Amino acid sequence: PRADEDAFESFRNDQRAQLENRSLSPNAALQDALVKALYGDTVRRGPFTVEIIDSLDLARGFEIYQDRFADMSDFTFIFAGSFDVEQIKTLAEQYLGTLPATDRGETWQDVAPDLPTGVIQEAVKKGQDEQSISELIFYGDLAATPDNRMHIRAVETILDIMVRDTVREELGGAYASGTFSNINEQPKENYYFGVYFGSEPARARELIDAVFGEIEKLQTEGPSEENVTKFHEIQLNQREEQVETNGFWTAVLKFYVENPDEPMSDILVFEDRIRAVTAEDVQSAAQAYLPENQYIEVILYPEGFEAE
């Protein structure tokens, strides 16, 4: 490749237009507030801005590209799909075997900011639509073990059911709701757990309190056996579908390349690990992963709305 000034300017113009439109988006304002609450003002985590795009330097970017691709000795190429192994070996030797490799020694550095402590509550006012989006993020240190991954997945699935049944169905207040979770192995072992829902602005606080009520119920009483069974069924069905896709196997192989100490044999017992999750496991995980003294709460309101 070459440093093409025309292509570079076209890219910058496209990015400027996208960012100018993004600045008008209420959802973007909500996500920016969440990121800032979690990571502060670091440029490594914050959103792109027009100023950043304007400061890009083609020569410096091309220099970085040339440096990064000058040594491919530590690259790993992953293939998943229907192909002849011997044929792809031949193609790999022809096209990948000739790539530059100098075996230079490198390692990564941890530049991630420390996560905040305590409770952070933010209100964002953007847009004219008479609706709110509320989001809660719990986070903390957590060893990235197979059991911990499965247990936080169980909390995610079961709390999603509980919030939907209570906040959306019984209280009739939420337009949509959901949960999500993630465990990181690098640069630090930690986790994130989120709950979100849309609602009328005047009911946002009431429904956040209802979500915390469901969290407390899960922590003190544990999940119902019915919901534990639903978790088993949902995860087993998802697994059955996932193993038929190339994207799943690409992601699995990538995970084991990045985490060489993890036993690949765990793939063979994944379904057993799902079935082994008990109500007690879910209750203990909810107590550990959803602390009442460390979380971020961000509520998006329309402009001009005054919360009581």
Structure overview:
The chain has a five-stranded mixed beta sheet with strand order 1-5-2-4-3, with helices on both faces. A hairpin with a 5-residue loop joins strand 3 (174-184) and strand 4 (190-199). It has helices at residues 5-22, 26-39, 50-55, 58-68, 85-95, 146-170, 204-220, 225-242, 246-258, 270-276, 279-289, and strands at 119-125, 132-141, 174-184, 190-199, 295-301. The mean pLDDT is 93. Helices cover 49% and strands 15% of the residues. The chain has two domains: 5-95, no CATH class; 119-301, Metalloenzyme, LuxS/M16 peptidase-like (Cytochrome Bc1 Complex, Chain A, domain 1). It is built from eleven helices and five strands; from the N terminus they run αααααββαββαααααβ. With 308 residues, the chain is of the alpha+beta class. Helix 6 (146-170) packs across helix 8, helix 6 (146-170) packs across helix 11 and helix 7 (204-220) crosses helix 11 (279-289).
